[in-house]
Design brief:
The radius of gyration is 57 Å and the shape is flat. By secondary structure, it is α/β, with parallel strands linked by helices. It has a five-stranded parallel beta sheet with strand order 2-5-8-1-9, sandwiched between helices. Strands 13-16-19-12-20 form a five-stranded parallel beta sheet. The chain has a five-stranded parallel beta sheet with strand order 24-25-26-23-27, with helices on both faces.
């Protein structure tokens, strides 16, 4: 029947929106629809075939045909009919995945094959998902999603593909799919590819929420919201009951209602330590019962009463599993009030959680299941291998076992130190290594999905196809500690745990090297542990929680803790180890006292923002006893020594992390109080605060000569009490001397004051412990690294510290760790690894360090071949040390890691300043829980004085010894006073500033520099005054001597003047004669020059005219060059040559002026002259004929020759063309003849000029001869003149020298007289100045102290506090009788006025504070850090340093 338009509209509005609404909105929406379409009832339209197929599929999957859930399957079906993009939305456990699977299987049954391609977008990065473009090569690599997208286009058209994206939504990766979800149905990649959507493909998102999705994304998807109420307790339990035998199902079914009531009480009244949804608790409830039930083929099946107790046990460890002790009591009270349940009859001070269901079905106390730990008497077990069974760990281990044997995940939560890790490791340690392996991982905030995937891939081998698993077909349990530590990104997602969930849920992940290839991981089980979420700690995603059964590990009871450590104390302190019975009894008494101390500290000293590390857990209690067990019976032989040892170890573990002395005082009082109360007041009052134990005080044995060759003379390591103030400093100084001699370039110069010695003892104690890692916390310069180096040297360990560079990265750190692991694990040598916060170039460094400290293993650090090499080297070592241990790869690797743990000691040197230290404690808890902390407090005043005395004792100062000692004392007072001023400054202005030991060392060095500089300046000025006074005395004495010298010099000057006059007359006569000769020479010279000018003129005219004939001559030469000797010979052989040739040769005869025949007319050629051919033959017969032509003397041609040539040249056929026609190459002679005729026409004008030129050149030769004679005469006269002139110059010079000497003497005498007269009054003033300089030197020690204090400490303070510091320091100087200038001006003393004025011109403000800041910037010994909000300092520095720097200044901050 066709529907009306109203019905269609109503159905569309209802069906398209109802599926996406939450439970609370559905009734409201249906009411709105009814109001919009009143009186309109839609007919029921179903899908009978599909519903039947769904019912069969659900039953086949072992599920319950639950109508509300089936409705969601139908809604998903309707949505996929009209949408190609869908989103199943709802909390974890609401049935989203099963809904998709049920629909796909049902549609496949109906003849439409469906299959899925599932991936988690948040377990990979965006480039790994969509692809990446290599910018250097422009190569494109497809990602996982783009590869799957392309794969759908290649699949069969009859097969429907659902591409399922199973992960949280964020606004990055899902927005990249908008073009896929809209009508374009196209995937656009970064390389420009546009891949259309396959017609048989749909994309579906399975998400927990869409908080980060944009409206555009939401509108493009068909939504199906699945509420948690869709799957409540009923369908889940019914599905489970359907898999049980009917008798068991009938027994459990009536009890399910109790679970609903208990869950309501649990969610409304109790406070669970983790938020877990109801469906997850139901799953855990079912898993616990399944773990308790025997196999169905087991002969003895449980009775109904037994089953009911199993139900109660499962109820308490599902709903009560994540409760603390107080809430567990409330939960038991509720169940007791509820009634109808077979609860245990609890003894006093116990709860039902202390009971379990025995094999007979009766309630039994957990103590009956606790085994007794046997502490060996003939050997000492490794402390970290000791696990004393108690109620708590036995119970938790049992719960882990019943879940783990079903191949389900187990998650232990609890406060730090509640033995979560120990329990898991102890449980996994029971595996048979031949069938079941165990690996441990530590998560931190820097753990990424890639790191986790790489770690898992390193644990497995290829089995078949794309399936991987543990080696040799074994199973494997991977334990993830601190699973909640990975950082939560800006979208609220924990991407690292997304890949963990993917591995647990889908049993694999995609291959990152081959995108699109799925790697299946078989036989791998995940267990995990974490601290309680909240209080700054992360929670894990709900979808990951669903993969685990979660148990809360509470703190052990007092009895359990006392049992653990009583077992250890009784096992070690026994008479078989020669301990005094009194000592053994005392140690038993100290067990509850230690626990009470720990509890008091835990309750009293709570963590605060300033003391966030005040977290005391069971690890600290364990470390106390670990230290106590270091002693031997020879050292602890009395009760007092035993108590002293206990007191020292409690302080080492607990008090050493305190930041305030009052906390230490409180702990000391509490220890004395408990000793007085539990043992005796005599022993309590005998406790000394300075109780320390060390193992390096003994001397090495003296060789006797009877030792074997391989004997090692090392000092015995005896852990014994030391006197801090007596023998310890001397011992440490001797070690320091040996260290400086042994370590090249060390130059360590430490002052072992009391606190420094104590810190070294603490560090040495930690390094001597197996698995001993230290965290040294103190401001810069406290001595953390230096003391660690010395302590490491004392322990005989190698020392290592990374060398940072620009390219140093996390891989370089792993490479360094490889070397350390080989040293510690293969060679078995102790290594100390110093790692400071300044070396944390990348926070990922701490990820590796976290793993080293927490588990001793860094995943993926070694390749397979490297591990095989290491195990091969360790085989003989382990066989020798542990002969009964089979050398399997697993045992060898465990042995290797254990050796690394024992021999590699990490020392973290951190500064507490700033927020980074606190943030790292939250991000990397393994660093803090795995290390023993030593907090470096502020150096006490006594220590400061010792340091100043060390550095200034030998420093030379011009002051009495008592004043020098006062200076040494005052330096410590100044540092200590500034530290107090920093606190006052913070309290008043909320500006934090610090002084550190490094500041103090800089202060000491600065004092020496300023004192030396100013002392030198004053000494120079005083020396100048003394020199001036000396010069005045010398000047008065010299005046009389100068006057006598002046009289003598004036007499000599008169004699010299007369001699000069005589020489002058001789010079005048010689000069006159020379001038006359010079005039006559000049006339001859001018005459010769006139002749030269005339010759040049004629040459120019002749050259110009001859230039006109040059082309014709060159043409003639070219023509002649074509004639060869063979051509001449050919012509000669002609019997009757052509007439033209004969005429040409006649012209040649005429030019050479050879004889020719009588001139007659040629009878054979009318009109032509007869030829002289025979004469021509003679001419041509000359072998030099061609040479003569080329070198023809052209000036011999005359008018007669040219006239004779005229008849020949004027003939009509006498041309070059005609000549070439009849004579070939000989025609060149014709051109030559014409050229000679033409040359003569020009040369006849030039010949007279050449004749005249020859005449003139003759005249020039004569003129030059005359000139040479005149010049010789002139040179002779000039030589005579030079001799006389030199004589005259010598006389004048001698006279001038005497004159200058006399004048200088007169001037010197005048100046000396004026100086003596002018400085007559200065003599008194200079004398007074000298006395004043002496006084300044006396006051210099105090002035230098004040100036150095100003430069070292005043920088962070404002003017008010700077003045206050100066005032306090001056008061101190007066009190300690240190001389100083009362009117001391710091600015004038530290900088001259010209420099300060130049600073002002460069932009520095003129106020005193700014000038002082400028002095600190330029004069302080340390690098300045400028707080410059207005940019004034930046402007000044740029101008002030612009002339000093070649490159531009770059502001870094």
């Amino acid at each position: 029947k066709e529907m009306s338009e109203d019905s269609i509209m109503m159905k569309v509005m209802r069906d398209m929106n109802l599926s996406k609404l939450v439970d609370e909105d559905e009734p409201l929406f249906l009411s709105l629809i009814d109001d919009l379409f009143p009186a309109l009832i839609l007919p029921t339209v179903g899908y009978p075939e599909l519903e039947a197929a769904i019912a069969d599929t659900v039953t086949g999957m072992g599920l319950v045909n639950h109508p509300p859930w089936i409705l969601k399957v139908i809604q998903l079906y309707e949505t996929q009919r009209v949408r190609h993009g869908m989103m199943t939305l709802g909390p974890s456990g609401a049935g989203k995945t099963m809904c998709i699977y049920a629909l796909m299987k049902s549609l496949t049954v109906l003849g439409t094959p469906h299959r899925e391609l599932r991936m988690n977008p948040k377990a990979i990065t965006a480039p790994q998902m969509f692809g990446k473009l290599d910018v250097s090569t422009n190569d494109w690599t497809d990602g996982i999603f783009s590869t799957l997208w392309r794969k759908t286009l290649r699949m069969k058209k009859t097969e429907n593909i659902w591409l399922l994206l199973d992960g949280p939504v964020d606004a990055i990766w899902i927005e990249n799919l908008n073009s896929v979800l809209d009508d374009n149905k196209t995937l656009t990649l970064a390389n420009g590819d546009r891949i259309p959507m396959s017609p048989n493909c749909k994309i579906i998102f399975e998400v927990h929420n869409i908080d980060n999705a944009s409206p555009a994304t939401v509108s493009r998807n068909g939504m199906v919201f699945m509420s948690a109420s869709v799957l409540d307790c009923y369908p889940l339990t019914e599905a489970w009951l359907g898999r049980l035998p009917p008798t068991q199902a009938d027994c459990f079914r009536p009890l399910i209602e109790c679970f609903e009531k208990a869950y309501h009480h649990y969610s409304s009244v109790l406070s669970p330590k983790m938020d877990i949804l109801q469906s997850m608790l139901v799953d855990q409830f079912i898993a616990i019962i399944n773990g308790l039930l025997p196999p169905q083929d087991f002969a003895k099946q449980p009775t109904p009463a037994h089953l009911e107790r199993m139900y109660v046990f499962a109820l308490m460890w599902s709903l009560g599993a994540i409760l603390e002790l107080g809430d567990r009591v409330k939960f038991q009270t509720f169940l007791e009030e509820l009634g109808g349940l077979s609860l245990p009859n609890c003894a006093q001070d116990t709860t039902m959680f202390e009971y379990y269901v025995g094999e007979s079905g009766e309630w039994m106390h957990w103590e009956s299941k606790v085994c007794v730990y046997d502490y060996a008497k003939d050997s000492i077990p490794r402390y970290d291998s000791i696990l004393v069974p108690n109620v708590d760990n036995t119970r938790t281990e049992f719960l882990v076992d019943i879940i783990a044997k079903q191949n389900k995940g187990v998650l232990l939560i609890g406060e730090s130190g509640t033995a979560k890790t120990v329990i898991i490791k102890a449980y996994c340690g029971n595996y048979d290594p031949d069938t079941h392996l165990y690996k441990a991982l530590n998560f931190s905030s820097a753990t990424t999905p890639g790191l986790f995937q790489a770690a898992i891939e390193s644990y497995v081998d290829k089995r078949m196809g794309s399936t991987y698993g543990p080696p040799a077909g074994k199973k494997m349990t991977v334990f993830i500690d601190d699973v909640n530590m990975p950082v939560i990104n800006e979208w609220g997602d924990q991407i690292t745990n997304e890949i963990v969930r993917q591995l647990m849920e889908n049993k694999g992940f995609y291959n990152l090297e081959k995108p699109g290839d799925y790697t299946s991981i078989a036989d791998v089980q995940i267990m995990a542990a974490m601290c309680h979420p909240g209080g700054g700690r992360n929670d894990i995603p709900e979808r990951l929680k669903r993969q685990f059964c979660t148990f809360n590990c509470t703190l052990p009871s007092d009895n359990s803790m006392d049992l653990i450590f009583r077992t250890i104390a009784c096992g070690y302190f026994i008479e078989e180890r020669r301990f005094n019975p009194e000592v053994c009894e005392t140690m038993l008494q100290l067990v509850p006292i230690t626990r009470k101390i720990w509890q008091s500290v835990k309750n009293k000293l709570l963590p605060t923002p300033a003391k966030f590390h005040y977290i005391f857990n069971l690890r600290d209690l364990s470390r106390i006893w670990k230290g106590i067990l270091k002693v031997s019976a020879e050292i602890i032989d009395t009760k007092d020594k035993a108590i002293a040892l206990w007191y020292g170890e409690v302080n080492r573990v607990i008090a050493d992390r305190f930041t305030m002395h009052k906390d230490c005082d409180w702990l000391h009082g509490k220890q004395v109080e408990l000793i007085n109360e539990c043992i005796s007041e005599e022993n309590g009052n005998a406790i000394e605060r300075n109780t320390f134990f060390a193992d390096f005080m003994r001397e090495p044995p003296e060789p006797t000569g009877e030792e074997p060759d391989d004997a090692v003379f090392e000092a015995p390591k005896v852990y014994e009490m030391v006197e801090v103030s007596k023998e310890l400093p001397a011992k440490l100084r001797s070690y320091q001397e040996m260290y400086n001699e042994t370590v090249r370039g060390a130059g360590m110069d430490l002052v072992f004051f009391k606190d420094a010695a104590i810190h070294l003892v603490r560090i040495s104690r930690i390094l001597s412990m197996p698995i001993g890692h230290a965290m040294l916390v103190g401001v810069g310069g406290s001595g953390k690294q230096s003391l660690t180096r010395l302590a490491s040297y004392i322990a005989g360990y190698d020392m290592f510290q990374i060398t940072l560079s620009r390219t140093y990265n996390a891989q370089n750190l792993l490479d360094d760790l490889k070397v350390l692991y080989r040293t510690a694990g293969v060679k078995g040598k102790g290594v100390t690894f110093i790692f400071t916060d300044n070396e944390i170039k990348d926070e990922n460094f701490l990820e590796s360090m976290n793993n080293v400290i927490a588990s001793g293993e860094v995943s993926g650090m070694f390749q397979r071949d490297e591990i095989d090499e290491i195990l091969g080297e360790l085989g003989p070592v382990m066989k020798k040390e542990m002969p009964r241990h089979p050398p399997t790869n697993e045992n060898l690797y465990e042995y290797f890691i254990n050796r690394v743990k024992e021999n590699l000691h990490v020392v973290l040197c951190f500064s507490p300043v700033g927020e980074k230290f606190r943030n790292r404690s939250l991000k990397f808890p393994g660093l803090f829980s795995g290390c023993t902390m030593d907090w470096f407090m502020r150096w006490p005043k006594e220590a400061l004085v010792e340091v100043s005395d060390h550095f200034l004792r030998t420093y030379d100062m011009d002051t009495p010894d008592d004043v020098k000692q006062s200076i040494i004392q005052s330096m410590g007072v100044i540092q200590d006073g500034v530290a107090e001023t920093c606190i006052d400054y913070f309290n008043r202005f909320r500006r934090q500033t610090h002084v550190t030991p490094k500041s103090y060392l800089s202060f000491l060095a600065g004092f020496k520099d300023i004192y030396s500089e100013k002392y030198t300046e004053i000494k120079i000025l005083a020396s100048r005054m003394e020199t001036g006074l000396t010069k005045l005395l010398e000047a008065s004495k010299s005046v009389s001597e100068l006057s006598e010298m002046l009289v003598v010099k004036e007499k000599n000057l008169a004699i010299a003047s007369k001699e000069a006059d005589v020489v002058l007359q001789e010079v005048t006569v010689s000069a006159t004669a020379a001038e006359k000769v010079k005039a006559s020479v000049q006339k001859v010279k001018d005459k010769a020059q006139a002749i030269v000018d005339e010759i040049c003129k004629d040459k120019t005219v002749a050259t110009t005219k001859l230039a006109a004939a040059a082309p014709a001559l060159r043409e003639a030469e070219r023509a002649l060059s074509t004639i060869k000797a063979s051509d001449i010979a050919t012509v000669r052989k002609l019997g009757k040559p052509p007439h033209l040739i004969m005429r040409i040769m006649d012209c040649a005869l005429l030019l050479f002026q050879k004889g020719i025949s009588k001139i007659t007319m040629d009878p054979d050629r009318p009109g032509f002259i007869g030829t002289s051919w025979p004469d021509s033959l003679k001419l041509m017969g000359d072998t030099k004929f061609l040479g003569n032509l080329l070198n023809f003397p052209k000036d011999t041609i005359n008018d007669e020759v040219v006239e004779l040539l005229e008849p020949y040249l004027s003939a009509d056929d006498f041309n070059l063309e005609r000549a070439k026609a009849v004579s070939g190459n000989v025609a060149g002679l014709l051109s030559w003849c014409r050229a000679m005729s033409f040359f003569f026409s020009i040369n006849k004008e030039v010949l007279p000029l050449k004749a005249n030129l020859a005449v003139q050149e003759g005249r020039l030769i004569i003129a030059n001869t005359d000139l040479a004679e005149a010049q010789a005469q002139l040179d002779a006269k000039q030589k005579e003149l030079d001799i006389v002139q030199a004589k005259f110059d010598g006389a004048v010079s001698h006279k001038q020298m005497l004159l200058d000497d006399a004048e200088a003497t007169r001037r010197k005498m005048t100046n000396a007289t004026a100086l003596i007269e002018g400085l007559a009054g200065e003599k008194t003033r200079w004398t007074e100045a000298g006395l004043r300089f002496s006084d300044q030197i006396k006051r210099l020690v105090g002035d230098a102290l004040l100036c150095t204090g100003f430069l070292s400490y005043s920088g962070p303070f404002n003017q008010e506090f700077r003045d206050l510091l100066q005032k306090n320091w001056k008061t101190m100087c007066m009190r300690n009788k240190i001389p100083f200038s009362e009117d001391l001006d710091l600015i004038k003393m530290l900088v001259d006025q010209a420099t300060a004025g130049e600073w002002v011109l460069q932009g520095l403000p003129t106020d005193n504070l700014s000038i002082q800041n400028g002095i600190i910037v330029t004069k302080a010994a340390r690098f300045p850090l400028l707080i410059d909000p207005q940019g004034q300092a930046t402007i000044w520095i740029k101008k002030e340093k612009s002339t000093d720097c070649d490159s531009a200044l770059i502001p870094l901050l």
